[in-house]
């Protein structure tokens, strides 16, 4: 008889546990597998538009004015529209090479859970996800996600809904 290998929880999964939020661990490596990861999700009955990426933005070139936008993997951002929605002069992508210093995560691991809890950055969600009861976000480890109730996540991170593209 072999012991079942126990998967070590990420810090972000522990945050969900501490807040009594139910979730399911999933593994979708969007960074390395791209559209194949969406096919894997579809095979499990998970709609692609309910799987979110986490994008870190910087407003007004202010080194202390970061914000996070979560949107479906297959969509793109309209930075001018986001700036208008948030009454900012401009927003642009945060320096990818410096993400570890900005958020504590490397590219592909960013998650609204840890970024909000540890850094206090405001979290914004694409209005188009409001049709989904459940969504998936990174669990803070490359290729690892958590699937949870949308409203549980939005409440946990004090998120707001905005239009991120026309």
UniProtKB/TrEMBL annotation:
Pfam families, from UniProt?
A: tRNA_edit
Q: Which SUPFAM superfamilies match?
A: YbaK/ProRS associated domain
Q: Which PANTHER family match?
A: CYS-TRNA(PRO)_CYS-TRNA(CYS) DEACYLASE YBAK (PTHR30411:SF0), CYTOPLASMIC PROTEIN (PTHR30411)
Biological process terms from the Gene Ontology for this record are: translation
Q: Where is the YbaK/aminoacyl-tRNA synthetase-associated domain?
A: 34-156
Which domain of life does the UniProt lineage start with?
Bacteria
The UniProt entry, under CDD domains, shows:
YbaK_deacylase
What does the record give under GO molecular function?
A: aminoacyl-tRNA deacylase activity; lyase activity
Query: So what family is this one in?
Result: Belongs to the prolyl-tRNA editing family. YbaK/EbsC subfamily.
The catalytic activity of this protein is classed by the Enzyme Commission as 4.2.-.-
Lineage of producing organism: Bacteria, Bacillati, Bacillota, Bacilli, Lactobacillales
Q: What class of enzyme is it?
A: lyase
Alphabetical UniProt keywords: Lyase, Protein biosynthesis
Q: Which InterPro entries match?
A: Prolyl-tRNA_editing_YbaK/EbsC, YbaK/aa-tRNA-synt-asso_dom_sf, YbaK/aa-tRNA-synth-assoc-dom
Question: What name does the UniProt record give this protein?
Answer: Cys-tRNA(Pro)/Cys-tRNA(Cys) deacylase
């Amino acid at each position: 008889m072999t012991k079942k290998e126990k998967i070590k929880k990420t810090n972000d999964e522990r945050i969900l546990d501490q807040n009594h939020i139910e979730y399911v661990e999933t593994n979708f490596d969007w960074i390395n597998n791209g559209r194949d990861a969406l096919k894997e999700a579809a095979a499990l009955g998970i709609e692609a538009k309910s799987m979110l990426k986490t994008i870190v933005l910087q407003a007004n070139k202010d080194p202390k004015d970061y914000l996070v936008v979560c949107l479906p993997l297959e969509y793109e951002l309209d930075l001018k529209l986001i700036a208008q929605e948030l009454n900012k002069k401009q927003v642009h992508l945060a320096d990818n090479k410096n993400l570890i210093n900005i958020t504590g995560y490397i590219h592909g691991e960013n998650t609204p859970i840890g970024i909000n809890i540890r850094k206090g950055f405001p979290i914004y969600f694409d209005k188009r996800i409001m049709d989904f009861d459940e969504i998936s976000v990174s669990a803070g480890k490359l290729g690892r996600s958590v699937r949870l109730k949308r409203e549980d996540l939005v409440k946990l991170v004090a998120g707001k809904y905005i239009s991120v593209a026309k």
